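Could someone model nicotinamide-adenine-dinucleotide with this protein?
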Amino acid sequence: MLGPVSLPVLVYGRQDRPGVFDGGIALRKVSVIGAGGWGCALACVLCRNGHDVTLWSILEDEVLALRQNRVNQAKLPGVRLPEAIEITSDLSAACSGKDLLVFAVPSVFVRSTSKMAGKYVGDGQVIVNVAKGIEENTLYTMTDIISEEIPQADVAVLSGPSHAEEVGREIPTTVVAGAKSEVTARLIQDTFMNDVFRVYISSDMTGIELGGALKNIIALAAGVIDGLGLGDNTKAALMTRGIAEMARLGLAAGGKLQTFAGLSGIGDLIVTCTSRHSRNHNAGELIGRGYTMQQAMDEVKMVVEGVFSAKAAKKMAEKYGVSMPIVEEVNKVLFDGKTAKDAMNDLLTRERKEEFSQMDWE
Ligand SMILES: NC(=O)c1ccc[n+]([C@@H]2O[C@H](COP(=O)([O-])OP(=O)(O)OC[C@H]3O[C@@H](n4cnc5c(N)ncnc54)[C@H](O)[C@@H]3O)[C@@H](O)[C@H]2O)c1
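Reply:
Sure, complex below.
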């Protein structure tokens, strides 16, 4: 099924003490930069944890509507923002004097937003990026971009299988926070974690970010498989071979293999390839049914990040000399007019291979 899915409100959270976690977390001043689906859902998590939360949007209309209705009807219908969340379009007020900033704008706006925010960010101020993508011309991850534009910040990442539609309704979710220092990783864990939002920590920022960006491309391909009317076997094959090529690139770029077996790797891949909430999957499904890339993007009506990441991943694979056959075929379908059926056929009839390298043959 395509388009927004309606879900009941608050199906799991602790109704007796909403959002309050027994872990004794320190209360902090936090701003969420970007008020789309994910920004709104994370602002709710942080507010329920008791923090002082500000939510910023560049769109004046969005700010006015959010102040009035407390719901982002276009991006996260059915999830009400608590009254305690302050909503603003003043970036200086949103960034200055906060303990932690969460960057939740779509990946295409991460550089422009970082450029605007930089002058308000203090030395060592923690910025947690939650956008998923690779910048096409630089091949930078999102934290690379933020670090370049705001060098004084301590930049980290939070990622994993986490649809805003479910997090906003307190459906149990688990993610991973990646940071350069353990102190920062634990600060993020401590700030976000509650009894329905579990946060692990890791030092492998490269692996976490590449997992989050690359899985969107495999999710597009999973949608194509559904659009072509193929089966569960086919999709399982795609996901398994997909994580293999994601990990190959991730390792070449300096990530750790275990990260690709973790929440931001296989975890996020599973949720994005199988979920009705995934816009990448939905766009792929339309392409599988015969839509062009542009027609599919127009129909989904949201930024389909896998389309941008596909080009960047192909360039990265060439840079590191890594084989990424699925990413290559997705690029051909998106940008060279190849049919989804031909791409599928070419993947299946590639030269014969071993499943992985270094076999212990007799
Ligand atoms: N939605 C999810 O479930 C989810 C989960 C995990 C991670 N993410 C990641 O978080 C990021 C944001 O996703 P989303 O679903 O909230 O996207 P979205 O499409 O809902 O975000 C749109 C919002 O971006 C902001 N915006 C629009 N134009 C802008 C501009 N020019 N400059 C700065 N901000 C602008 C506005 O607040 C707008 O509402 C993406 O990278 C996505 O991959 C999303």
